[in-house]
Amino acid sequence: MIKGKFIDNLPKVYGIYTGGFLAFIIIMAIGEQMGMSKYAIGVCFVAFTIFIYALIGWLSRTAQADAYYVAGRQVPTVFNGMATAADWMSGASFVAMAGGIYFKGYGYMALLVGWTGGYVLVASLLAPYLRKFGCYTVPDFIGTRYGGNLARFSAVVVLTVASFTYVTAQINATGTIASVALDIEFQYAVYIGLISILLCSMLGGMRGVTWTQVAQYIVLIIAYLLPVFWISNKMGAGFFPHFMLADEVARIAELESQFGLGTVKNAAADLATVPKGLAGITKAHSAVNATPWAFISLALAMMMGTASLPHVMMRYFTTPSVKAARKSVGWSLFFIFLLYSSAPMLATLSKLSLIDPNLSTGIIGKTFAEVEAIDWYQNWNQANLMFISDFNGNGTLELNEFFMGGKAVVLATPEIAGLPYVISGLVAAGGMAAAMSTADGLILAIANAISHDVYYKIIDPKAETAKRLVVARVLLVVIGFAGATIAAMEIQGILGSVIWAFDFAMSGLFFPLVLGVWWKRANRQGAIAGMLGGLAAGTWYLVWVRTGGSGFLGITQLTFGIFGSAVSLVAMVVVSLITAEPDKATQKMVDDVRVPSGKTILGKSH
Amino acid sequence: MSNQEKHWEKSRGLLFITLAIWFVFSIGIFLFGAEMNEVTGPFGYPWTYWFTCQGSLGAFVILIFWFANRQEKIDEEFGFSEREDE
Questions:
Q1: Who contacts A394 (Cβ-Cβ below 8 Å, separation ≥6)?
Q2: Helix orientation angle between A322-340 and A205-235, rounded to the nearest 10 degrees
Q3: Global pTM value
Q4: Which of residues 247-286 of A touch B (CB under 8 A)?
Q5: With an 8 Å Cβ cutoff, is A492 touching chain B?
Q6: No. of H helices and E strands in chain A?
Q7: How confident is the model over A159-177, as pLDDT tens digits?
């Protein structure tokens, strides 16, 4: 059936895979009809998909440095786009985003704009040039462009801080989903998630991660889009929700004013009885509820963070050419767009399903006895994701008396809208795929930076390939376990730590990377000042605001990267200008990076 | 001016145009978010709401492909495009 090289057969291989996955969903649906239990369906979905990823990871094992670090630089444009999309869309995008939009509306949607607009910066400022450079890791570029171990090491420090903040959130997400689907304690589920993550990346490095990420993208996009289209059609809202929900958006606004949103306020004593982490609808669905600066500063921080996060940037090192790297950024964003543009639609459908009394699924206006008798309400109430309480004692449920967890919008909506349970199993598998793929990319980014840049380039430049790859794999496991241990402590929510990671990355890396290509005068001293100064300033601001500082210019703990990167820019420019300009060889290097044709700056294997 | 300098000058010009369009869709629109949301926009959604949900996102996708094609043309013009066997 499959002849010749794997790379030449990609469309066929993944076509068969997608067909097989759809067949699996149908088999599960038939199983449900024949009385398979919900628990069994959930276990099958999670176990089957993880088995496939592990299989791909095993088939992609390699002993070559360029296959391990950059997948042999032969990943075709479109497939690299899918892999990047999976790498990019984390547990936060999949599980938390629709919920955030549901509760916070416009102000939250700055994240949608930020997490997509950043790719324009990636495509135009960085990706093609770093691909031409031929580096294995992001610090590899910094270390070679600016020269010296200190510059290289500073980049590793920033990379590790940002990626590690991010990865604990992802391991946390895999743990949450595994604990719900497999019905085990979170503390143990975290390690099951971690082992699944390591299975994909340990043997094949970047090559293994690339091909599992493509497989994970296919699962997660089916799992996200199928319920959105299904619910929209079932509700009669339109067969293509993205273009047809204007009436529903207007209807929500009408219901909001009818139910007295914003005028009926809950007493503080009543709110204190609501379980932690749950929220009621307090913001109008489609109104502009944030000041321009609040919106723009958050979007800007996310955009600059996108262009500085190493696990995304290193995906573009795997394309066959500079031209392909540019196109590949476009495909990445296209595949991301498919999910991001659906999240507000899911939030709209979910909200309307719950609050519209004209729909059979609506619960507002029903009596408490009626709502408490609903099967799905009991389940999600038990899972601590839903809560109702008769504050005014009139016996019927009001809009301000209904509370829900953010995760429930994605996880519970299929059930609320009356879809078969098989869809809920599919959504769990999708969330798992999203969190795993991002965790893999991040752990690999950290382990590669430490093994290649610290161990090989700084400590032992004579190490043989086999030894380097052993070090890389050991680091992968160590970093994974460190991340899981911190995740098991549940220090911070998923979304908060993700946003912090972007701020850390932009504080330390954005200007050193961009100016490395676009400003020939930038030198080593400037870059080091920029990286360390930016990271220190950003971290200081975060700690200051967290410990009761008032902040300035409307910069919050979610946008501290704006301050950090501003300090980074000033430090870098000032220090560069007062120290000597880079030598001729470095200037020539920058000239060569700007031309797509010709040899890469660093050799094929280095 | 050498061939390479001319190539870089044109590439930089393209960068500025790209960033200007990027600015409009990522920042410009949201400076007037509240005012624009009063107007009914594409597919009947309120304007600003539509841009945050779909409009800006889609514009970025198109912008990147447009940029990639323009940059390829510039590379070809100066003989800097890569050969397929490289």
A1: none
A2: 30
A3: 0.91
A4: 247, 249-250, 286
A5: no
A6: 28, 3
A7: 988 888 888 888 888 887 7
